[in-house]
């Protein structure tokens, strides 16, 4: 392990400790809420990254999985009194099932066409849910506040528990990413992303591994949806199924750096900070300002750093290692 | 079981719309053989490879591999059965390291990453690229990339390897090395079909040479006889 790796490990541990202690030190509700927003955004970015980053299948419809998670647990809680913890798993399972269903035909499409198909499907689902009376259509679902406490995942006095749930979900998503990335599946994802025809010549069944990616990604995204529902205690199509949400989820990962473990976390930090900052300047979420910001960010990334923030850091790291190698390579060893 | 050849192709046709890229092609490849496949540009060599490796579904005819009819197989099925290939225009995974490229190939036979790494390291030693293991594949020279493709294909443990112009653009010394490499692959018990325009590369090592011209097999013979074959000479001079 070289010095840079050590520094990275220590930095990671420090960030984790700070994160764990954050709500104990910072008690201001707005700050805690800000931190929760970052954690939730980071979790979504990490989940999206499994499909869009590692496997290279850019989805512009991830709100559909988020919405399925939010709606499944909310309907089960509101109508059947089921614990949101179970609802979270049910939502994940349904989202994965739906992902497999749409993945099957959509993965026959290449590149931009896949992205467009996901965009279209998400838009259709939003319209369907808006007109679906059983789930209260455009009115939305209010969640019962009676079950206050950990069992019901409802916390009305302090938002701190949501912070820890969001942190837990983020760590879970990072863990799943890491396990996939380190296993043969992670190698297959990268191979599929870089050259699908070559991947096939090595016996890789493209559809199978893309389906693995979309199912895992959808499950984790849906879990995030349940957390959102429990935190807000109200959902409607506009808040959990919106097209702008799909764009935002993709952008978190793209801004931070696709195909890297912590890129989406950095992306979330920057994106949420920008959002909150502009919200304070321009007032509440005026429709449109979000999209203008997203558009601006996409232009900047495309022009200056297609690898996102992590891509820039990676370049610095490589430069650093290259310099070090030059210094430490004993003469005659370089041939 | 009777002693069937490793690969037996019978009456293979491949059409693209009205264009017949392969017409009524029959031949077979035995265990441990090196078969040269030559012909002018556009003769249908790469198309034939694409049919054998499952990238194209032949319009007619049969392909038997190891006694099994494999005509409509997918590329991934071909790989699993033991037909490996390289691409005329190299298709490496550019952002992966050299070692990782080969590991992906090895993962066909073992899903354990450590075992795949060990297997890949061996292949890189075999092919002579072990000193470049940790370099990004994109940074290799084209001739190194071609060798990387061979190592990656070998890592899938094939019984037959299809090499599409791996000697193009090499210096005479490199061509000799590449020929020796094919012989060493044969010595591992792997048969090969090798498409080449570089005659010095395949004439000395091939058991037989098959000649395609405008989609038709015009000759199949020992290398020395092929060089004297009037139809072959005509096909090359007629260009
Ligand atoms: N996918 C395709 N669609 C339509 N036509 C094709 C396709 N692939 C090949 N062809 C045509 O089939 C014929 C044979 O091409 P092929 O690439 O097999 O030749 P080749 O012998 O490999 O030539 P070269 O030595 O230049 O590589 C050519 O006329 C080519 O244009
Ligand atoms: Mg060709």
UniProtKB/TrEMBL annotation, chain B:
SMART domains associated with the record: AAA
Keywords per UniProt: ATP-binding, Nucleotide-binding, Transport
GO molecular function: ATP binding; ATP hydrolysis activity; L-isoleucine transmembrane transporter activity; L-phenylalanine transmembrane transporter activity; L-valine transmembrane transporter activity
InterPro entries for this protein: AAA+_ATPase (IPR003593), ABC_AA/LPS_Transport (IPR051120), ABC_transporter-like_ATP-bd (IPR003439), BCA_ABC_TP_C (IPR032823), P-loop_NTPase (IPR027417)
GO cellular component: plasma membrane
Ranges of residues in domain ABC transporter: 7-239
SUPFAM superfamilies given in the database record: P-loop containing nucleoside triphosphate hydrolases
GO biological process, one term: D-alanine transmembrane transport
Protein name: ABC transporter ATP-binding protein
Classification of source organism: Bacteria, Pseudomonadati, Pseudomonadota, Alphaproteobacteria, Rhodospirillales
């Amino acid at each position: 392990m070289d010095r840079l790796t050590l520094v990275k490990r220590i930095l990671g541990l420090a960030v984790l400790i700070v994160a764990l202690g954050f709500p104990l030190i910072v008690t201001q509700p707005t700050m805690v809420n800000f931190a929760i927003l970052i954690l939730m955004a980071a979790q979504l970015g990490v989940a999206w990254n499994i499909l869009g980053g590692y496997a290279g299948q850019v989805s512009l419809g991830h709100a559909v999985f988020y919405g399925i998670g939010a709606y499944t647990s909310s309907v089960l809680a509101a109508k059947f009194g089921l614990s949101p913890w179970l609802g979270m798993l049910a939502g994940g399972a349904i989202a994965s099932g739906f992902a497999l269903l749409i993945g099957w035909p959509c993965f026959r499409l290449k590149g931009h066409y896949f992205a467009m198909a996901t965009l279209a499907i998400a838009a259709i689902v939003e319209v369907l849910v808006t007109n679906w009376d059983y789930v209260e259509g455009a009115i939305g679902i209010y969640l019962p506040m009676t079950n206050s406490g950990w069992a019901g995942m409802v916390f009305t006095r302090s938002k701190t528990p949501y912070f820890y749930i969001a942190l837990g979900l983020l760590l879970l998503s990072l863990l799943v990413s890491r396990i996939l990335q380190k296993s043969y599946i992670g190698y297959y994802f990268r191979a599929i992303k870089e050259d699908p025809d070559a991947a096939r010549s090595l016996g890789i069944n493209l559809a199978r591994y893309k389906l693995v990616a979309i199912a895992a990604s959808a499950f984790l995204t849906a879990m995030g949806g349940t957390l959102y529902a429990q935190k807000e205690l109200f959902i409607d199509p506009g808040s959990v199924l919106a097209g702008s949400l799909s764009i935002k989820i993709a952008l978190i990962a793209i801004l931070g750096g696709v195909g890297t473990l912590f890129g989406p976390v950095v992306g979330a930090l920057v994106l949420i900070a920008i959002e909150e900052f502009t919200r304070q300047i321009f007032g509440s979420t005026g429709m449109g300002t979000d999209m203008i910001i997203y558009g601006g960010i996409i232009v900047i990334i495309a022009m200056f750093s297609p690898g996102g923030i992590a891509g820039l850091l990676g370049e610095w790291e490589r430069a650093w290692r290259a310099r070090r190698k030059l210094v430490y390579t004993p003469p005659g060893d370089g041939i | 079981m009777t002693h069937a050849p490793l690969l037996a192709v019978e009456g293979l046709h491949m059409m693209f719309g009205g264009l017949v890229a392969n017409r009524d092609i029959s031949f077979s490849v035995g265990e441990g053989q090196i078969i040269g496949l030559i012909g002018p540009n556009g003769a249908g060599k790469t198309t034939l490879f694409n049919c054998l490796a499952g990238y194209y579904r032949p319009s007619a005819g049969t392909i038997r591999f190891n006694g099994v009819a494999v005509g409509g197989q997918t590329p991934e099925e071909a790989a699993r059965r033991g037909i490996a290939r390289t691409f005329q225009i190299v298709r490496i995974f550019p952002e992966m390291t050299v070692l990782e490229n080969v590991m992906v190939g090895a993962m066909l036979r073992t899903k354990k990453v450590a075992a795949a790494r060990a297997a890949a390291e061996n292949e890189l030693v075999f092919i002579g690229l072990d000193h470049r293991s940790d370099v990004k594949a994109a940074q290799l020279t084209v001739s190194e990339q071609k060798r990387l493709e061979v190592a990656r294909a070998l890592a899938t443990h094939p019984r037959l390897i299809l090499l599409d112009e791996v000697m193009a653009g090499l210096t005479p010394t490199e061509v000799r090395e590449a020929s020796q490499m094919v012989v060493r692959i044969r010595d591992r018990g792997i048969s090969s079909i090798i498409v080449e325009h570089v005659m010095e590369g395949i004439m000395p090592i091939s058991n037989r040479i098959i000649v395609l011209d405008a989609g038709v097999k015009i000759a199949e013979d020992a290398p020395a006889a092929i060089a004297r074959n009037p139809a072959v000479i005509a096909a090359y001079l007629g260009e």
